Amino acid sequence: MNKFTYQNPTRIHFGEGQIAAIAADIPKDKKILVTYGGGSIKSNGVYEQVTQALEDHNWGEFAGIEPNPQYDTLMKAVEKIKAEGFDYLLAVGGGSVVDGTKFIAAAAAYQGEDPWNILAQQHPVESALPLGCILTLPATGSESNSGAVVSRGKDKLAFLSPKVQPLFAVLDPTTTLSLSPRQVANGVVDAFVHVMEQYLTFPANAKVQDRFAEGLLLNLIEEGPKALATPDDLDVRANIMWTATQALNGLIGVGVPQDWTTHMIGHELTGNYGIDHARTLSIVLPAVMKERREDKEGKLLQYAERIFGITEGTADERIDAAIEQTIHFFKQMEVPTSLTDVDLGTSDIDTLVSSLEKHGMLALGEHGNITIDDSRAILQAAL
Ligand code: NZQ
Ligand code: ZN
């Protein structure tokens, strides 16, 4: 295990009715901008709860942050903040709203010429407006981490800064009951792949991180299909919500190697073809497992045994079986597992490889040894 410093400063309010808790978390002298998406919060009662919670606060709103939040939209919020003097942000929605609001928080306080450089040039975020969030879609972990992903046309880029980590996050599983089966499935798969990107590398003798990661994977395999089969089961939703938060709040990733190859290739699939984030991951991960089986052999065998109980056969046979079981789980969640499943083929691989090159994705993986040619091979294995 490598050395690390760990702190997760986001205060979590978990459970039914917890939206009310934000009243005490946001100072009364702040002028709050409530940000949200395309309107789901207006039809599922969340907006009303926010209105009630903020009845003694001074607040305004900015709607229309789209899935895979767009830079131009977010900059409109920045203009509003500057014109009207907001000094606190409250994101209400899924990962896109939370990510978009993180960028707004950083861009509103940015001193340089062009806030796009926070993403394109990875300019450090020196300061940001304070923000909290009410999460309505368990998936990204954005509610208690310091990352955000923003799109501008076909460019989908990420930045990380402790300055944009939410001060608090409300996780009320009842807010997730209005999600479509597609969004439920996407969330489970995204969280699953977050765990895998921090787990499926090489053994680092980090037993807490490994066993915690394995517990999260088992939860998702157990509860994910239930969320589709019995969508009204609140206990299932609660377990998925807490699992998704833990999957990317930093804890399982401390002191261990990580490999975000699946996400980096996945972002190009979303940027170029508009495929939902999680659905890009279910296409790419099995191909990464196949192509990088030598580098990942130790952890693949551990994964096979501890997650699926696979102990019989040669190492290669056990790894094949684990990859098959992973695909089986994704199919249960009704997400695509190949490029063909989303009507893409060999002729699209050049486009994806060029985008990876443009974005500097030339040395991916836990060893930094996944070259652009290796990414091409991964995409071919995903056909
Ligand atoms: O916009 P509204 O009307 O709210 O509808 C949304 C949206 O259409 C809807 N939705 C959300 N909560 C709902 C609901 N519909 C009914 N009931 C509810 N309770 O769901 C749709 C998708 O929402 P979105 O926020 O886009 O989904 P998700 O949470 O999966 O976020 C995806 C974004 O997060 C990024 C992805 O790249 C993508 O841009 N990620 C962020 C990460 C991070 N910050 O750490 C890590 C992830 O790997 C990921 O990259
Ligand atoms: Zn993700």
TrEMBL record:
Domain Alcohol dehydrogenase iron-type/glycerol dehydrogenase GldA: 9-173
Gene3D superfamilies for this protein: 3.40.50.1970, Dehydroquinate synthase-like - alpha domain (1.20.1090.10)
Cofactor: Fe cation
Fe-containing alcohol dehydrogenase-like C-terminal domain location: 185-381
InterPro entries assigned to the protein according to its UniProt record, in alphabetical order: ADH_Fe/GldA, ADH_Fe_C, ADH_Fe_CS, BDH-like
Keywords: Oxidoreductase
GO cellular component annotations of the record: cytosol
One Pfam match: Fe-ADH
UniProt GO MF annotations: alcohol dehydrogenase (NADP+) activity; butanol dehydrogenase (NAD+) activity; metal ion binding; methylglyoxal reductase (NADPH) (acetol producing) activity
Entry keyword Oxidoreductase: yes
Homology family: Belongs to the iron-containing alcohol dehydrogenase family.
Name of this chain's protein: NADH-dependent alcohol dehydrogenase
The organism of origin for this protein: Photobacterium sanctipauli
